[in-house]
């Protein structure tokens, strides 16, 4: 099917739902470890508590990709029903997660939240490939990255912003502050509204041969056997991209799970108070806990705000790519390589910067994040069968979640422990991993994946 060239606002509308998805991910990534620490989790246990996130992605994304490939509704299309279901579930989970009274409940809510976000997210990746011809795909993924950057910055600053508006950062032992609760409630609202905007402003192409599509959909086939078959027939370029993704996402999982304990301790000198060190029936202990806990919560706001800067720089990077790729050929391979190396330097600098300089580290990290959200998907979409785009986008997620599972099961604690006991060593590990990911781009040799000339469409 020949697909017409879409204008900027059409691509913007079809990608706008990612604003809500990124609100969910930014609040989860920036503040879930803070919630765990508030509920008395040690920093050594935090990566394991995060294992729900990659595990749900490993299970949910291939299933949703498979189902959405085989879905067609005259009114709602192929991908949009999954956007909507995921948005409703994610909004509910976002609202309730900061009210968790116990650590196990917060971990359970993370499981529900990540599964729900994945239901919405995977079809969005496939929608870009569905709607855009190959000449516009890099452009489309970059616009998506632009919206993700906006969402990351705004959502990461929400607890700090509502705190500035007078909502309290103080809370009793084992209770999440109201500033975090209000921020998550705002995130839940934005998630639902932005997804609804895309659902009602975007149409989808029907299957090119509806009769053949219906026959294929009605054929009895095993989901498991189809998955195994497609893994076996995975394009070589996809496997090579998987190596790059492994080291990229190991680095970012390390950041999401351990940036708050690492940076509050190393840079702000305000580690989370250990609840067992305080007897809350003694007034002096209670006062000491409140002072330490409030300092930790306020520095956590500042860590979250600094992390939000990577959303801004990824947005700026995406804007440059939007302008460039709308008119010119882009070498995706070297763009991704350089961007990942820059982000690695940002992580390595964290060991040496002051609180005021921390934002510069995240500016560099944002450049790599902007590339991670666009270049691999643009390269992948030029390498797979369009009829199985949802399936392969779901399978590609394996290369995102497997490194996170390895990190959660002790990988990041083991590797950072080789460098010493300081919490900041986790950020050093993230930097080294991201630089390795950049070097792995030398593996990519497929010319259509590396570059696509717009005038050839």
TrEMBL record:
Q: What is its main location?
A: membrane
Q: Which InterPro entries match?
A: MFS, MFS_trans_sf
Location of this chain's protein in the cell: Membrane
Mind telling me which Pfam families this protein's record contains?
MFS_1
Q: Which residues cross the membrane?
A: 48-68, 80-97, 103-121, 141-162, 182-200, 241-259, 302-324, 360-380, 392-412, 424-444
What Gene3D superfamilies does UniProt report for this protein, alphabetically? MFS general substrate transporter like domains
Keyword annotations for this protein? Membrane, Transmembrane, Transmembrane helix, Transport
Q: Output the Gene Ontology terms for molecular function.
A: transmembrane transporter activity
Protein name per Swiss-Prot or TrEMBL: Maltose/moltooligosaccharide transporter
